């Protein structure tokens, strides 16, 4: 038995197919996809895809490429069970696939809100192409959008809906936007820009009191005020899709637990992308990241393990988000108690925040400052830490500090 079975045809699954095909191993690969379509790019689903009914899904690779590489794609046929002793995976269709290597690339699913009844006609989540099509189909009749959750996806859709001329309200329970992922400076700037665009953003509000009529959510209570709802997006984060791994007896803890080579407790089973909880290379602290970069780099590292040339996983995390006029870019991991220094950009709407921990540059966040961001990312990759005062002098290009 020589097969490589990949469960999940998202960014990580598609990138793993690329890496294995490039090594001439395509004919060994079975890609198991719960969704009925080929792997596609998820980032546009909250951005360009919502703005125009003509915008198509962007495939990672076309059907012909998978066929040329000899990769068998099982579409619309979810994996339902893993038998690690027999080294088999059972699909919903009843098909059983044997494996030498199994890679779990099952991503995440939208975090539910237990108080909100399921199946309401005007309530949306956004993870998949099907979700995106359903939301896009709602725009012609929608007058307004209420977004529960001031995280990346909620804010991206809020900006998109505003650009479509909708009345938009964002309700965030935490005291600031994107609190788990960005600095207070970035949160404050993003709040100002969204408010200036006409979005009603409320932070630190408790939401409840959902009123349902005729299968639709008609109102909710936010901070003691009754707000009417036309269309609602539930954007309160995502949870790792780890049920299969758990049922197969693999340790999970906010993600499928893997080592520094992305191996689970079973050396024949790897986990990659959004669903994997991996050790951060410097601190060993467990991380689960939801980003395209992380999915792609995990997949490349997993391919190296399968191809017999394992390398410890050390990629620099980075992420981007587009919210209306703002392009946000983050690289590195922000420390909880580091020092932050602001570097002004070319315009008042552009700047970067440089995070230092024990004198070391560890993270950079940028708003509409792509050149500074590229330079800062290089510094992080090279482990260079310019003096903060010099690095924040806008007269000095940041790239001057890299090798
Ligand atoms: C709307 C949206 C916008 C985003 N924007 C950005 C952005 O701007 N920048 C950025 O860096 N990241 C962005 N992300 C995050 C990024 O898309 C994810 O981090 C990335 O897709 C993770 O890749 P993955 O392969 O781990 O998981 P996914 O791409 O989520 O793929 C997982 C796949 O596994 C499938 N699956 C699950 N269980 C099974 C099963 N039992 N059998 C078969 N298949 C199964 C799922 O159906 C899914 O297709 C965005 C995500 C969304 C949803």
Give a brief description.
By secondary structure, this protein is α/β, with parallel strands linked by helices. Helix content is 24%, strand content 29%. The chain has helices at residues 11-22, 48-51, 63-69, 129-138, 152-163, 184-196, 243-247, 292-306, 370-382, 388-391; strands spanning 4-7, 29-32, 72-74, 79-83, 88-91, 96-98, 101-104, 108-110, 123-124, 144-148, 167-171, 200-202, 207-213, 216-222, 225-228, 231-234, 238-240, 256-257, 269-271, 276-279, 286-287, 318-323, 326-332, 339-344, 351-357, 360-367.
Report on the structure:
Helix 1 packs parallel to helix 8 (292-306). The chain is α/β, with parallel strands linked by helices. It contains ten helices and 26 strands. The chain is 24% helix and 29% strand. The protein has helices at residues 11-22, 48-51, 63-69, 129-138, 152-163, 184-196, 243-247, 292-306, 370-382, 388-391, and strands at 4-7, 29-32, 72-74, 79-83, 88-91, 96-98, 101-104, 108-110, 123-124, 144-148, 167-171, 200-202, 207-213, 216-222, 225-228, 231-234, 238-240, 256-257, 269-271, 276-279, 286-287, 318-323, 326-332, 339-344, 351-357, 360-367. The protein is globular and about 60 Å long. The strands form seven sheets. The protein has a five-stranded parallel β-sheet with strand order 3-2-1-7-19, with helices on one face. Strands 9-16-10-11-12 form a five-stranded parallel β-sheet. A five-stranded antiparallel β-sheet has the order 22-23-26-25-24, with helices on both faces. The model has no long low-confidence stretch (mean pLDDT 96). It folds into three domains: 4-109 and 238-306, FAD/NAD(P)-binding domain (3-Layer(bba) Sandwich); 120-234, FAD/NAD(P)-binding domain (3-Layer(bba) Sandwich), CATH 3.50.50.60; 325-401, FAD/NAD-linked reductase, C-terminal dimerisation domain (Enolase-like, domain 1). The protein starts with a strand and ends in a 12-residue tail after the last helix. The site of flavin-adenine dinucleotide has 37 residues, from helix 1, helix 8 and strand 22.
